[in-house]
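Supplementary Methods. Inverse-folding protocol.

Structures were first reduced to a discrete structure-token string of length 344. This string, shown here, constituted the complete conditioning input.
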């Protein structure tokens, strides 16, 4: 039988737990028998997932819906001006525009997305409105902004002084190509343990949650690759690429160079592999291996990571390069950070 406590302990020991901030979230925890079901649970990408999970957990631990949990969870990095890869404060495209991509998917297969949305701090909530208030799945650019304003969202300048400064610095040597895998360059410079997550310039937040009823939802939100061509869209707002949820099977999300994820319809692939019986980690690994197999030379220099959860609440991740972390929050642990396994 699968023993979650042993699994978490083993994962933590083998992968190495990073220092983590103990939050007061423990106070809202329901008392739980450790042998109870593996949910509610919420998992999300990168170190900044810890803080995001904590807010999602406030919803889950009080009996709320997974959909509300993932929306509220990813609000945290979206609103964090120090996080330069998601929402407000995100690094702009090469022309200085902060353009945001996000999508959301619920347990019924409903989904919504916004692509290259400007001036709105919480693109995930606009994506949810697309899902709930329109017959469409995706809205892009000016149309997405127009819709957001009609829905009462506030128009704001998302380019913070820090991101504008970084962009102007980049312009001095600007090559008109997106900076690939910037996170790993930063990892090479500093031990990950010594930096707070927002200094890595990582990346998309992908979040997956299972609520007390066993229903699964997911959210994915990003400012995309820094200094990308204006109009470039990655994997993150594409259902099946950056995020996929099937309530019978599980959910998956991705981070890293979105072009390679789109080419392989990565998150859908991970969920379909889990349907065939793969564990979450094995499914993520297979999706990574397909990217490596198709483009071995490209893969050496880019990062792509997948994170997945199955219907039982078992989770796992796999990435091309070292340095991909993910955060887990359930009744036992509210601040568990795990280094995902990797090919290199
Ligand atoms: N996947 C995102 C994109 O390609 C960026 C990232 O996660 O680093 O836009």
């Amino acid at each position: 039988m699968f023993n979650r406590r042993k699994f978490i302990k083993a994962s933590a020991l083998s992968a190495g737990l990073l220092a983590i901030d103990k939050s007061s979230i423990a106070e809202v925890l329901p008392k739980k028998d450790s042998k109870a079901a593996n949910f509610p649970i919420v998992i999300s990408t990168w170190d900044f997932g810890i803080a995001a999970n904590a807010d999602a957990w406030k919803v889950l631990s009080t009996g709320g819906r997974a959909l509300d949990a993932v929306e509220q969870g990813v609000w945290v990095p979206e609103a964090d001006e120090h996080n330069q890869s998601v929402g407000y404060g995100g690094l702009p495209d090469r022309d200085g525009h902060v353009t945001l991509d996000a999508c959301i998917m619920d347990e019924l297969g409903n989904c919504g997305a916004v692509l290259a949305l400007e001036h709105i701090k919480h693109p995930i909530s606009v994506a949810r409105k697309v899902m709930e208030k329109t017959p469409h799945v995706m809205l892009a650019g000016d149309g997405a902004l127009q819709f957001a304003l009609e829905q009462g969202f506030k128009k704001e300048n998302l380019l913070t002084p820090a991101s504008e400064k970084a962009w102007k610095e980049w312009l001095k040597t600007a090559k008109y190509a997106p900076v690939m895998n910037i996170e790993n360059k930063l990892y090479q410079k500093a031990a990950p343990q010594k930096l707070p997550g927002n200094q890595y310039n990582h990346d998309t937040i992908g979040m997956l949650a299972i609520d007390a009823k066993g229903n699964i939802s997911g959210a994915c939100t990003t400012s995309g690759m820094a200094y990308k061509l204006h109009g470039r869209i990655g994997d993150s707002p594409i259902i099946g690429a950056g995020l996929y949820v099937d309530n019978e099977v599980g959910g998956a999300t991705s981070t890293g160079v979105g072009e390679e994820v789109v080419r392989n319809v990565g998150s859908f692939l991970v969920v379909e592999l889990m349907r065939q019986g793969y564990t979450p980690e094995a499914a993520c690994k297979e999706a990574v291996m397909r990217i490596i197999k198709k483009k071995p030379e490209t893969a050496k220099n880019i990062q792509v990571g997948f994170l997945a959860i199955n219907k039982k609440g078992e989770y796992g991740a796999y990435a091309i390069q070292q340095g991909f972390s993910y955060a887990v929050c359930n009744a036992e642990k509210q601040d568990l950070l795990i280094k995902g396994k990797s090919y290199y």
